[in-house]
Design brief:
The complex is a heterodimer. Chain A folds into two domains: about 1-30; about 35-245, MetI-like fold, CATH 1.10.3720.10. Chain A contains eleven helices and no strands. Chain A is about 80% helix and about 0% strand. Chain A is elongated, with a radius of gyration of 22 Å. Chain A is an all-alpha fold. In chain B, strand 9 (about 205) and strand 10 (about 215-220) form a beta hairpin. Chain B has eight helices and ten strands. The radius of gyration of chain B is 18 Å and the shape is globular. Chain B is α/β, with parallel strands linked by helices. The longest helix of chain B has 18 residues, at about 165-185. Chain B is about 35% helix and about 25% strand. The chains are: A mainly alpha, B alpha/beta. At the A-B interface, helix 7 and helix 8 of A face strand 6 and helix 3 of B.
Chain lengths: ~240, ~250
């Protein structure tokens, strides 16, 4: 209870200052920052005409698909790289180079390879999600306490059994952390992803409404992305706490 | 299971530094013997035990078990680690059943088996508990049960009771002797505690500081259950302590 109250103090202060600056004093013109009331009206409008729901759902589907592909690629690859030194030596340099490239820079190639539409969007979100999952999985596997691995060997486990029954569960907390960061970054890529051939989605809503100077609707979409991110974060953090070993 | 160590030495290389931790160990452990390797911390005793387990390999010399070379870890040589080594994501039952699980034993059968060993260490009520819910002494009990569940011919124990309080340690020592008497495996037990060595062992092998060499061997012929206050116990402890140079 106390924590909830504490968490709300700053947002409420921001809301009050925002309201004063935009509504009562008129210090900031509405085309620069819309008033809270205008945002609320935009929200109501987007709810009643149904676009907000469609946009949210289609963004969620894209993020999920991109994130799922990223997880399916990054977790097995991370286990491999974390376990086999040769895989680590082979991949360290190339991962180091690819990782800092912003997903948005890949847009031209996304269009060339996957065409305009869903494929490209998934690819961009995949690029955002894949590296945090990969890096955390590698790290988790490498950090597996040696005593667990040696225990498994002294009880007759093969390398594959040790990997499956010891290393993967031991690395699970790190893998979950990777997934948490990965889905967050995937969500951050939605605007970029939806710039290519999408005709719906929260990212699409942001840049179309901005281009029509409807900044209030853009803020609504931004806040929805924020809330979705917060919800994912909460879910993963709860899972992390449960399996913290 | 019998062991033979012939001129065993071990040198660890760290970049350009070399550290000799074990030097010219010649030792025979008889089948069914309870042997303690006693030495100050940093006497290479853990390294010797790890080499017998197949977790490390000698730089020179050779180690054989029942006449054959030790080429790697095996469930026939159970190992109990000094650190807590239970898998935190498995409950007691699944920890103890791990060795049987990787051997491919059916669930029902391996649980039945595991329960016997959990009972042996007195933790039947805790079979569904997770390691973080157990005390240090209970964890090491489970670790012993987990090693025994694979029906090993030898049990290699690396200061398993070092982190426990005196009372718990004494209880576990007593139980270990009982288990050994019932199961008759060979036990090689590493410790830096003279009292523990004299209480447990048939034979105490005393090692020097680095590089670890055997400086003396004592046969303990005090009848079990041993009385810590008896003169022979106290005298032997003193004699060994003098050799150790504490």
């Amino acid at each position: 209870m106390r924590k909830t109250v504490m968490a709300l103090i700053i947002p409420i202060i921001i809301l009050i200052i925002w309201g004063i600056l935009t509504t009562y004093t008129g210090l900031i013109p509405s085309y620069l920052i819309p008033s809270p009331y205008a945002v609320l009206q935009a929200f109501e409008n987007l709810i009643t005409n149904g676009t907000l729901l469609t946009d949210t759902v289609s963004t969620l589907i894209r993020v999920f698909l991109g994130f799922m592909v990223a997880a399916l690629v990054a977790i097995p690859l991370g286990i491999l790289i974390g376990w086999f030194k040769i895989a680590d030596d082979l991949s360290g340099f190339i991962i180091g180079i690819l990782r800092p490239i912003p997903p948005i820079a890949w847009i031209p190639f996304a269009i060339l390879w996957f065409g305009v539409g869903l494929g490209s969007a998934i690819f961009i979100i995949f690029l955002g999600s894949v590296f945090p999952i990969l890096i955390n999985t590698i790290d988790g596997v490498k950090r597996t306490d040696k005593v667990y691995i040696e225990s498994a060997y002294t009880m007759g486990a093969s390398q594959l059994q040790t990997l499956r029954k010891v290393v993967v569960p031991a690395a699970l907390p790190n893998i979950i952390t990777g997934l948490k960061v990965g889905i967050g970054i995937g969500l951050m890529c939605t605007v970029a992803a939806e710039m290519i051939g999408s005709d719906n989605g929260l990212g699409y809503l942001i840049f179309t409404s901005t281009s029509m100077l409807d900044t209030a609707s853009a803020i609504v979409a931004m806040l929805v992305i924020g809330v979705i991110g917060l919800a994912f974060d909460y879910l993963f953090t709860r899972t992390e706490r449960k399996i913290n070993w | 299971m019998s062991f033979q160590l012939k001129n065993v030495s071990k040198t660890f290389k760290n970049q350009d530094k070399e550290l000799k931790v074990v030097k010219d160990i010649n030792l025979t452990v008889d089948d069914g013997e309870f042997l303690c390797l006693l030495g100050p911390s940093g006497s290479g005793k853990t390294t010797i035990l790890r080499m017998m387990a197949g977790l490390d390999f000698p730089t020179n010399g050779e180690i054989t078990e029942n006449g054959g070379p030790v080429s790697g870890p095996s469930p026939g040589r159970g190992f109990v680690f000094q650190q807590y080594s239970l898998f935190p994501w498995r409950n007691v039952l699944d920890n103890v059943a791990f060795g049987l699980e990787v051997k491919g034993m059916e669930t029902q059968e391996r649980y039945e088996n595991a329960r016997n060993y959990i009972k042996m260490v007195g933790l039947t009520e805790f079979e569904n508990s997770y390691p973080h819910e157990l005390s240090g002494g209970m964890k090491q009990r489970v670790a012993i049960a987990r090693a025994l569940a694979n029906d090993p011919q030898a049990l290699l124990m690396d200061e398993p009771f070092a982190a426990l309080d005196v009372q718990t340690r004494h209880n576990l020592q007593e139980e270990l002797v009982k288990i050994w008497q019932e199961e008759l495996q060979t036990i090689i037990f590493v410790t830096h505690n003279v009292d523990e060595a004299v209480y447990l062992a048939d034979r105490v092998v005393v090692l020097s500081r680095l590089p670890g060499e055997i400086i003396n061997t004592f046969r303990v012929e005090i009848e079990r259950v041993r009385d810590r206050t008896s003169t022979e116990f106290v005298d032997l402890k003193k004699e060994i302590t003098d050799v150790l140079g504490y």
